[in-house]
Amino acid sequence: MDRNRTFSSKAALLAGSLAVLAVTACSGAAAPERVPPPPAPAVVVASASGFYVNPQTPAAAQVQQWQGEGRAADAADIRKIAEQPLPLWVTGDAAEAEAQTRDYVDRAVAAGQRPLLVAYNIPHRDCGSFSGGGAPDAEYYRDWVSAMAAGLAGRASTVILEPDAVPHELSGCVDGAVRDERYELLSEAIDTLTQAGASVYLDAGNPGFISDVDALSGALERSGVARADGFSLNVANFFTTDDSAEFGAAISERLGGASFVIDTSRNGLGPVGEAEIDGAPSFCNPPGRALGQAPTTETGRPLVDAYLWIKRPGESDGACRPGEPAAGQWYPEYALGLARRSAG
């Protein structure tokens, strides 16, 4: 790993702070549904983390709606989500990816905050599960990444690269030539996005997905992590921060001290123990969960660059049970439950 570049990128990240079947296979990371943005609230919120608090999220719109309906207590609970930095999950075709990215980064820069984005369009995404889809082929994906980079336009940002893509290289759902192509595509994406100003964290799943740290570290290396700023853990999952930090430290040791970030968006009460709940996998909208620690770059852990809300809490993991929204769609009842069970 190029530690000089890594440490300089970490410095940029910290400077910004100043202004999978879950238990069994994957995280259920879901790209948010693309909907017309709601009107911005009157007050633009800044996060102590330095990351951009986007006023145009479903959570922000829900606060406004419930305030207007006289549901003041519920609106106050959802404000716990709306007033935190939530990333843009970049999807769509190349033109959409560039436009989404440019608009989001423009607004973040104008607010004096650091944009946080998730690149989520790898071919064979989520192995056809609840968040299946992605680019149809390798050349399309290369063009798509280049379009996202054009939207970044050299501005300092943080990008989480392809949740679950590396663990799926080891799970058996992509293998042979497809797996080898994925190594190449992820490596190229790291180079393209870092050259466009991004600090890039390549996703490594969670402790309950691929738990073999030697195999996982090897796959990360083959996927170009040495040229990234590190890796991400627990995206769209529920493992505790302590468990994720311990798992990450073991991976980091095998990668020469690589840094990582942890998704704390919904891990306030940890994971559920069952593999299934009401006939659906327990990674998908499990009941009784809570928001985790708010985003911060002050983690108190030398290897952990930040705690981030990478999964946008309150957006569905998938239509796993009757009545549950499709992956990425706003799920107000679930959001309210997460918020009500959370401190603060």
Tags for this model:
344 residues, alpha/beta, TIM Barrel, 7-stranded parallel β-sheet, two-stranded antiparallel ribbon, 10 helices, 9 strands, disordered N terminus
Descriptive overview:
- With 344 residues, the chain is an alpha/beta fold.
- It has a single domain (3-29, 45-265, 292-312), classed as TIM Barrel (Alpha-Beta Barrel), CATH 3.20.20.40.
- The protein contains 10 helices and 9 strands.
- It has a 7-stranded parallel beta sheet. Strands 7-8 form a two-stranded antiparallel ribbon.
- α3 (72-82) crosses α10 (332-340) and α5 (138-152) packs parallel to α7 (176-195).
- 53% of the residues are buried.
- Residues 1-9, 11-26 and 33-42 have low confidence and may be disordered.
Per the principal axes of the C-alpha atoms, what is the gross shape?
globular
Poorly predicted runs of 5 or more residues: 1-9, 11-26, 33-42
Helix content: 25-40%
Secondary structure tally, helices: 10
How far from one another are the termini?
A: 39 Å
- Strand % is 5-15%
Q: Which sequence of strands runs across the widest sheet?
A: 1-2-3-4-5-6-9
Tell me the count of domains.
Answer: 1
Mean pLDDT rating: 88
Class by SSE composition: alpha/beta
Q: What is the name of the CATH topology?
A: TIM Barrel
CATH architecture: Alpha-Beta Barrel
The CATH superfamily name is 1, 4-beta cellobiohydrolase
The major sheet is characterized as: 7 strands, parallel
Strand and helix order: HHHEHEHEHHEHEHEEEEH
CATH class: Alpha Beta
C-alpha Rg (nearest Å): 18 Å
